Amino acid sequence: MDILMAKFGETKMIRYFQNRRVVLGVAFAIGIVAVFLFVLFNYSVYRDVANCYAVLAREFAAGNYAGAFHPSLPPLNTTLAGLLAAAGITPLTALTLVSGAFFILTIFPLYGFLQRFLSPLAAAWGCVLYVTAPKVIRFGGTGLLESARNFFIVSALYFFSAAATERGGKVRCCSASRSAACRWPAGRGSPWPGCFSCCSSRSSGGSTALRGGGGNRSSA
Question: Which residue spans traverse the membrane (predicted)?
Fold first, then answer.
């Protein structure tokens, strides 16, 4: 940004994009447009989506709950897509909307997490980089499960980082809850929830032990 300002001068457009709210708005706009384009022009459907996720969503919409769940697949995306399919949306479009919604919602915890280490403006530009990453866009616009997994992992990172700097038990509880919820959207994210939950509980226990130890020393 400093290089652009030195070359072109402090124009109105450059000042405009130094506003974090504007940059965050750009990030949301890019995410919404990307999902909208996938809904309209997604003609390359993954076999997992066509042969499995869409079938589960269709069975859920039809009320056949015995065939709407698979023991080796997480139920969150297909269940939400089934609810949309019950309203008259095709299963593929419903899956795309669900994965796209998680893709866009990840901006909230990502911004909060980045803001703990960067300036608000840099954190906002980090969200722009997130929504323009090709692989992340593919996860969010093709009905795959990874966008929901990413949402809960980033949320767990945000609350875990907050728990590392704040002593409130409520924040640690939120971190453990987000970590546990991460098991719902994608099985490949399963090593992460246990790690975050374990670290959160150890952090909570360690801080309690320190407070207790300090109290014993002071009383002695």
Answer: 21-41, 80-105, 117-137
